[in-house]
Amino acid sequence: MTARDIWQSSQRDVAVGDTVLDFLWPASLERFTEHFQRCLQGEQIYYEANIIDPSGQKRWYAFSYTPIYEPETTLVGVAFSGFDITKQKLSELALRDAETKYRTLVEQIPTVTYVVEFGDSNRTTYVNPQLEALLGYTAAEWLSDPSLWLGRIHPADYQAIKSYFRESSDDPRPLDVEYRMLARDGHTVWVHNTASPIINVPGQAPFSIGIMFDITAQKQSEEEKTQFDAKLQQTQKLESLGMLAGGIAHDFNNLLTSILGYADLALLELPPRSPARPLIGEAVNGARRAAELTAQMLAYSGKGRFVVEQLDLSRLIEDITRLLEISISKKSVLKYNLMPDPPSIAADATQMRQVIMNLVINASEAIGDRSGVIMLTTGAMYCDSAYLSETYLDENLPEGLYAYLEVADNGVGMNEETRARVFEPFFTTKFTGRGLGLAAVLGIVRGHRGALKIYSEPGVGTTFKALFPATDLPANMAEDAEAQAVEWRGSGLVLVIDDEETARGLAVHMLERMGFEVLAAADGREGVELFRTSKANIRLVFLDMTMPHMDGEETFRELRRIRIDVRVVLTSGYNEQTATSRFAGKGLAAFIQKPYRFEELRAVVRNVLG
Asked: Residue 597: which of 308, 307, 250, 259 has the closest Cα?
């Protein structure tokens, strides 16, 4: 008997007629027979089949085979039923296709996408594979450990973000927050996390769909811009203060020039035992202290007096150790860690001594009345752009080898506010301080194209590190020797051009005392006319740099047009580099900085005239 015979001899009606069997049979005969035979063995079977109906359309049917027993243990037949489930099947397939398509879409989105189900535990039910690229964790790891999300929030942001999440879960609302997370390898990642709650969905608990993307590069860029803006503002502020300090010092120098100069001349006129000599001497000492203060202001503005030579920082410190030791508190102990034969630097020895002295005295004052140690260290290091960018007032310094001087103390240290203002002129934490020591240090270092770095912690101490570009030339530390005064007399006609009446009068008196005849002009125009009238007889022109109507540079140019071989000595309150930078290669005979003394001027004039 065939399966069809068995089917047709069954004592039970079937849910489908012979027509269904006819179009089912050719495609599913073997399968039908197999299921039927299994059902005859007492097995209940259900399966779905894709068939072609008589009209040629593809349809889905669900078939079931159920054994029939009468009485309870005797198999008497098979109950067979078939149902058209095409509509249901097509809906399932469409849903599956849509789910596959959107899952593929979500998993390809370059940002982390996630779903959080609200409830007691706020469980993450989905996260796409981009999580691994962002934080180093697979989606499976993230979903299996509910504590990972909060556990990887940066400690600095943890409390705020935890409270934010808690409030969001208690009262579902849109999420939009930025914070830091720690990746698996420990590095910090800035993320922007946004999410929208989905509520009132029948049969589903409220949930939230969110995205989280990496904004680390943006945050770094913002931080760099903030630092740049702050550094620019600080630079502009200090430049303005520097211009103010330099302008005041320049004008003050003109006054000091006449005070010191006339005092010098008075001393030369007085007999050795005159009772007026000590009084004038005290006036000269006071004026010199004022000149030192002016020098500090000029140093801060970067326009102090520089006599550049090749220096060895270690030898420079060794030469002034005695001076350093008597300049600090008796409670402070100096220790040295000096590099033997460090690379030389092109610098002014006097200015470098001032840097060392100011830093050491500042360290001693930071230690105060308690016992402490001041450590002076010299050395050399290669500085790349990243390191130089962290120094105080990085002004696009070139990468390369730098010699450094480091002064460290274990004093009171500085807070952030004090560190931000420590180089401002007239800022001081001491009741009686003038606030020019560190300002002068900054000006000198800047004037030498160097950099400063500060390390400080309140209650621990402070370290100042001054860096100067190293050179390949050997150090040339000339031994100090007192210049012997040489009685020298000049002759001939000298022209003095200076708009400051007191400075002009002083120069005239000094030059006359040397033996010269002197013509005086109150500005550049008058000076040019006098020179044109007496050009054949004038041996030397003494020219001020800063004047109204026609400044020193313009006057010098006109003098050279009248007589190309004119000898000009330039004078200014600013340093030689600043004052003479526009005269390079133009035949300037010499330079002398105000305030000057009689012997200094005589030495310059003697050298120019031979």
From this structure: 259
Token pair 């001081």 in the structure block, residue: 428
Closest CA to 340 of 317, 321, 320, 356: 317
d(CA 479, CA 439): 29
Percent of the chain with pLDDT over 90: 18
| Amino acid (1-letter code) at residue 5 | D
Higher-pLDDT residue of 236 and 500 is: 500
43 residue type, one letter: E
pLDDT at 438 over 60: yes
**Rounded-to-integer distance, Cα 79 and Cα 75, Å:** 11
Average pLDDT, stretch 349-354?
A: 82
From the number of C-beta atoms within 10 Å of its C-beta (0-12, 13-18, 19+), residue 370 rates as exposed
Report how far residue 405's alpha carbon sits from residue 453's, in angstroms, rounded to the nearest whole number.
Answer: 11
Give the pLDDT of residue 67.
Answer: 83
Q: Which residue has the higher pLDDT, 314 or 595?
A: 314
The helix (run of H) or strand (run of E) holding residue 379 is: strand 372-383
pTM, to two decimals:
0.41
Contacts of 212-216 with C-beta under 8 Å, sequence gap 24+, read 212/111, 212/112, 212/114, 212/134, 213/110, 213/111, 213/112, 214/134, 214/189, 214/190, 215/178, 215/190, 215/191, 216/188, 216/189, 216/190
CA angle at 186 for the pair 184 and 190, rounded to the nearest 5°: 90
Mean pLDDT of 75-98: 78
Q: Is residue 403 scored above 90 in pLDDT?
A: yes
Give CA–CA dist 189/288, Å, rounded: 59
Q: Domains (ranges, CATH) in the chain?
A: 3-90 (3.30.450.20), 109-214 (3.30.450.20), 308-469 (3.30.565.10), 493-609 (3.40.50.2300)
Q: In what order do the strands lie in the sheet with 517-521?
A: 517-521, 493-497, 538-544, 568-572, 590-593
DSSP secondary structure string for all residues of 322-335: HHHHHHS-TTEEEE
Gap between the Cα atoms of 199 and 164, Å rounded: 19
| Terminal C-alpha separation, the chain | 143
CB distance 502 to 520 below 8 Å: no
DSSP state letters, 281-324 = HHHHHHHHHHHHHHHHHHHHTT-S---EEEE-HHHHHHHTHHHH
The rounded distance, in Å, linking the Cα atoms of 475 and 343 is: 8
User: Angle 113-117-123 (CA atoms, 0-180°, nearest 5)?
Assistant: 90
pLDDT at 345: 92
What is the spatial distance between Cα 316 and Cα 314, in angstroms, rounded to a whole number? 5
| Contact (CB, 8 A) for 82 and 15 | yes
**H or E element: which one contains 175?**
strand 175-182
* Residues 335-352, mean pLDDT to the nearest whole number: 88
So what's the pLDDT on residue 395? 64
Residues 6+ apart with CB under 8 A from 177: 161, 164, 192, 193, 194
Euclidean distance between CA atoms 444 and 299, whole angstroms: 5
Give me the mean pLDDT over the 459-467 stretch: 91
pLDDT value for 267? 78
The pLDDT value recorded for residue 106 is: 65
pLDDT tens for each residue of 537-569: 999 999 998 888 888 889 999 999 999 999 999
Residue 270 has pLDDT above 90, yes or no: no
**Among 288, 246, 312, 254, CA closest to 575:** 246
